[in-house]
Amino acid sequence: MTKTEEIINKIAQDKIDFHLGVHVLLEDNYNFKELSCTLHNYIINSIPNKTDYNSEAYQRAVNSIPLKPTYTPIVILKNFSTKIAFNKLASLPENENRKVITSLLWIFKITDTERRNTECKNGCSHFWHELE
Q1: How far apart are alpha carbons 29 and 41 in whole angstroms?
Q2: For residues 108 and 4, what is the distance between their CA atoms, to the nearest angstrom?
Q3: What is the rounded CA–CA span in Å between residue 63 and residue 50?
Q4: Half-sphere exposure of 104 (CA within 13 A, CB side)
Q5: Chain centre to alpha carbon of residue 56
Q6: E strands along 1-132, which residues?
Q7: Nearest Cα residue to 31 out of 97, 76, 91, 77
Q8: Residues whose CB falls within 8 Å of the CB of residue 25, separated by 6 or more in sequence, listed in order
Q9: Which residues contact 15 (CB under 8 A, 6 or more apart)?
Q10: CB-based contact 26:18 (threshold 8 Å)
Q11: Residues 88, 9: Cα–Cα separation, whole Å
Q12: How confident is the model at residue 71 (pLDDT cuts 50, 70, 90)?
């Protein structure tokens, strides 16, 4: 597991404060494409419904992202299916990158918490759920 992946998982598990974690991930010279791809994959894997990648936890996450609801990434996430929205997020101008990462990280935090509280409640083989 890379340092970035460890930070993402610690944020999702409330072992690092969300806002502090966002700041750490977005420090100097972060790689937007790599970070957004990692978050995209994490989200897709944490959502139980693989047919349309829509779940109650996903909708709750999108509707509670701690950014203004009028920001472009939020509007996209609320108005398009998951797959289309993620493609649109990847093609936004660079000045939207921080909002995209914040949004994706929040979605993963919520969907992974749901997975830990349901599918993984009685133990699982996800090594990242065992972080110290």
Answers
A1: 21
A2: 14
A3: 20
A4: 30
A5: 15
A6: none
A7: 97
A8: 4, 7, 8, 35, 101, 105
A9: 131
A10: no
A11: 25
A12: very high
- Round to whole Å and give the CA distance between 36 and 42: 10
What is the DSSP-derived secondary structure letter of residue 67?
S
**Looking at the chain, how many residues does it have?**
132
Q: Which two tokens stand for residue 75?
A: 């509007």
52 secondary structure, DSSP code: T
Quickly list DSSP for 2-18: -HHHHHHHHHHTTSS-H
pLDDT in tens, 91-109: 999 999 999 999 999 999 9
On whether the pTM is more than 0.85, the answer is yes
